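Quick board copy: two proteins, each given as sequence then tokens.
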Amino acid sequence: FNWYNNISVIFTDVESFSTTHFFGGYNPLYFNTIPYLGAKPYEFSLSNAYTTRLDAQWQFLNKTYLITSINYAEAELPFKYIPNQDFPNKLGNLHRRFSFGLGLAYNSPLGPISFSVARDINKSQFTTNFSLGFWYK
């Protein structure tokens, strides 16, 4: 099991690029981006949010893994009590989001190869991700 948590809090009344975080995708590239399965990369932008994700991984063949994931994002509580927050703080048109995903990974000589699919419960479409090799930030 892997458990990931992220909290982003900005204490200002000025909305700018440096006070905005971008949520979405599997492997965001920039310092102010946070992964959220079931959303396109950088789909949501806001200042304050909490995300948590739990992954469970099972090895069912030699070097082959099945990975299940659940992801939750919260943009309202307790952030609405922060003073001087006059700009909207929503994930799309919602204050909270929940998603789930399923992935298949293989440890090859070139590095890990993985394919994943995920869905936000408030959307009808699935997002996919293919990865080859190690991820560097």
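And the next:
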Amino acid sequence: MNSVQIAICALPSLFLDRIPADPALLQSAVESAGFTATSIDLSIDFFINQCKKDIEKYETLSSVFRPNNELLSEGAEASAQEWLIMSINKLKLINPTVIGLSIFTNYQHTAAYMLATAIRKELPNVKIILGGFGLTINCNGLAWLPLIKKIDLIKPFWQFMTDKQL
């Protein structure tokens, strides 16, 4: 795959029957401005690759991405790690200068945090841009993360990610 300037990603956990339009619309706007871009639905990738196109399995395994994921199903964390490795490998192939993460809801905070952390480690020179309504929602859903401070839970997600330099 040829390198693009901007990759715009939709993240799990979204409803599979409501396909996110924002990344494709943003891709069109970015291309109209003269940049090369691609949109990637990493939520559907999770459904296809980790859940083998099984909706019940998706509902179970995507529990790892949901707020306050105290009720993790067996295999959810391993599936999330597989998804993360596949997502990073896909992004490395695309080789973008900028990666945009479309965050529509707090149900995408965990996936965004996991992916941004991996991008920072594996693709340190790539700029990460966050967008979407989910940025304004507080971080209560991340309370399960190790080393998260209580003060972080009341911050809007954009502030938490900025503070973490993600």
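Board note added afterward: The radius of gyration is 15 Å.
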